[in-house]
Amino acid sequence: MTRPLQLLAIAGVLLLISVISACGSGGGAESQPSATETPSSERVYRQASIMQQQADRVSEQLDAEEEQDGSVSEHRDAEASGEDAEVMASGSIDFGHRIGLPFSRNVVGDPDAPVLFVEYSDYQ
Amino acid sequence: MLIEQFVASGQARYEFRYMPVLGDPAVYAAVAVACANEQGGFWPLHDRFMLADETLFSEAGLRRQVEFDGLDYDIFQQCMLDAATLPLIQASYGEGVERGVEGTPTIFVNGVRVDHSYDAIADAVERALNAP
User: Fold this and answer.
1) Residue B34 and residue B96 in one domain
2) Which range of residues forms the domain containing residue B130?
């Protein structure tokens, strides 16, 4: 396994643990306004089992992708480059500072625009 | 807002990718937004989490927002319970690691990593527009 995939595997395990923790505590934030809706332990265990299976499948899939000819990033850049134009043009935003802009899923803007911004970010 | 300026002018499009490096709440939020995305509701919930709306970290608060955004809460809830979007989050995170992302936000302009200052982004856009 290559170093990036090792990092990915580690990240996957950390994410898995984080999601289980976050969902198990109803969100994980100490400052939650409501702590009365914590999922039952049975639900959390079922969820953990499903997530583990999914994580295993993803790991196997990523290994298989690496053995083929392209990396994950190349695949995703191709997706965002307009090759899936039918999906790209799926609506326009009707609120906030992006009002009127076309969007599809997590992409906003003209599918034919010559410049592509990709931002890796998180929620705090 | 700088990015929106270029997007609104038609010069650029913008794609958000999940890179939850800030711990449990960030992962929880990413899973939730990705579940909303499955119903075409990415941007409203994305914006609420970006505003650090703490009410979204309770089931009731999240439900209120999801229903306000016009999404089917039953479908959304099942997506959360099944962690159906977790592989996408993992893939996005792994891809970020592969591309050398070490912190957030990290921005690429046509595949080239740039600083997230006004000048750096504007220069990168200019270069991209003038590229042969």
Assistant:
1) yes
2) 102-132
My answer on whether B127 and B75 are in the same domain is no
Q: How confident is the model at residue A71 (pLDDT cuts 50, 70, 90)?
A: very low
Q: What are the tens digits of pLDDT across the range A27-55?
A: 333 333 333 333 433 443 445 444 445 54
Could you tell me if A122 and B26 are in contact, meaning their C-beta atoms sit under 8 angstroms apart?
Answer: yes
Residues of B within 8 A of A121 (CB-CB) are 16-17, 19, 104-106
Rounded to two decimals, the ipTM of the complex is 0.94
Question: In the sheet where B112-114 sits, what is the strand order?
Answer: A103-104, A107-109, B12-18, A115-121, B106-109, B112-114
Considering chain B, what is the average pLDDT of its residues? 93
CB contact under 8 A, B50 and A123: yes
User: B130 and B117: one domain?
Assistant: yes
Number of domains in chain B: 2
**A3-14 tens-digit pLDDT:** 544 544 555 555
Would residue B106 count as lying in a domain? yes
Which amino acid, one-letter code, is at A70? G
User: Model pTM greater than 0.90?
Assistant: no
The C-alpha atoms of residue A20 and residue B27 are separated, in whole angstroms, by: 10
Could you tell me if A2 lies within 8 Å of chain B, comparing CB atoms?
Answer: no
Do B70 and B92 belong to one domain?
yes
